[in-house]
What we know:
There is one protein chain. Helix content is 50%, strand content 0%. The chain is mostly helical. The protein has a domain at 2-42.
Amino acid sequence: xxxxxxxWLLSQPGIVSIIVGARxxxxxxxxxxxxxxxxxxxxxxxxxxxxxxxxGKLGSNPDxxxxxxxxx
Length: 72
């Protein structure tokens, strides 16, 4: 599952790096393989559509530190 998510993130325009965590060296090895995983276009589209609702709720800039709001 992690490889699919990481591969999808790497395919998104504007994403230049991804920060991943690991509890052990084996997880690092599994996560690194995501760079080699090429998801078919229809899967990429389905994953993108699944995230649209959340992106709509986050707004145009989900980085709370870059927003004008003083409420954090």
